[in-house]
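Reopening closed ticket. The problem is back. First fold of the pair:
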Amino acid sequence: MQRVGRYFEPELPSGYRVAKVIDAKDKRTLVMLNVVAVVLALLVLAVSYAFLAPTYGWGEKDAFARDLATFGEARMLDLFVVLVCYMVAHELLHGLVYKVLTGHKLAFGVTLTVAFCGVPDIYTYRRCTLASLLAPFLVFNLVFGVPLAFVGPLDAILFSLLLAAHVSGCSGDLYDVGLLFLRYTNPRTLVNDDGPSQRIYVPEERA
């Protein structure tokens, strides 16, 4: 498979300009993404309570409160361990897609505000970037969402919290996806993703 020219370019071709820079370490961007993350988490938890709780016999608020208290005593360690494993798996899945499509060296890391995976030495085309951005979101929606239809109350709380943490943790990915779907739709759009930041390049318009 010829990867160069289909999924990435080793160098920025001539005739391109920087259209957008997204930096997760920038304070304004960080605040915006955190606000979006909290809103997404609350939405997921609200949907879980409204539509899933009655299925497990949580029709009464007192019953749900008891289940929640029991969960806090018995399952918080489980939640913490799974979340740590999820964070690693999330970034590895980004990297797996990049590796399969480009074969290039990956960069992984953690800062005080973000865990990341990128391919800083190349410029990936829009469809390659979208595939990497969306992979964890789609896969872990299934991993954490599907079990909710089959488990009991305490496990349902666990998976609801995991799903909320996952969706909120994808706020940065979803922001980039929104830009590429709604604003930078040219298939020749290139992205340089070093992990914490992404630079979007578009072809210069010719007169």
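Second fold of the pair, where the issue appears:
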Amino acid sequence: MSAPVVETRGAAVRRGGRTVWSGVDVTVQPGEFVAVLGPNGVGKSTFLQVLLGLIEPAAGEVSVLGERPGSANRRIGYLPQRRAFDAGTRVRGIDIVRLGWDGDRWGTPLPFRGARAKAARARVDEVVGLVGARDYAQRPIGQLSGGEQQRLLIAQALVRRPDLLLLDEPLDSLDVTNQASVSALIQQVCRSQNVAVMLVAHDVNPILPYLDQVLYLSPDGAVMGAPEDVITADTLTALYGTPIDVLRDRTGRLVVVGQPDVTPTHGHH
């Protein structure tokens, strides 16, 4: 077994004088696909920010790629909550991907020459092919569909060959077909590149067939394990301290139903 990519023990975060979550124990291995789930406001995006070193934990231990959070960020690909590209945006999709290579230093790519520029072009072309975007990568990003834009943003996050990919609601605002295709793409990246992925999601259903583990956050704690072990009535009832039912509709979609003051719902939109 390789060293964990992410490991937390008893981690907790406080913001604005309140505890967002506490007692979080997580172990993520290389090449695993993990979903971060929970009701609105429970701190799913906050968990990614802790891993990036942007927020200090209030308690417990957090290790990312064997180092303190923030120390190994160059080995992390990060896709924040979806950005909307105006239809008139003329920057090409391939230039959006190139920003992941050295955009933090140079901004919009310039026509540099030399060995470094050649290596950048080769890597950008490689990841564009990996996400299946070669047919439209030369087009303006504003003219592409939501699914096409998201594939190029994932390519941007992959361009530096990360060991960990953090994706914050990458399926949000995509239609069902694109949710399924992007979910399958992310699993393919996990397996072919041996990249660990932690993906924040509101609805587990599009990604459920592809997941290795689920981290389910609540204000009172967290549970991590295989989806079939975590997304159950018994587990979620114990986690929230109130009766919760987990149902499947005729298509196999999960519906998590709680009391009126609990909103851990999935797949009911």
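Update: turned out to be a display glitch only; the data is intact. The CA atoms of residues 67 and 92 lie 36 Å apart. The longest strand covers residues 18-28. Please close again.
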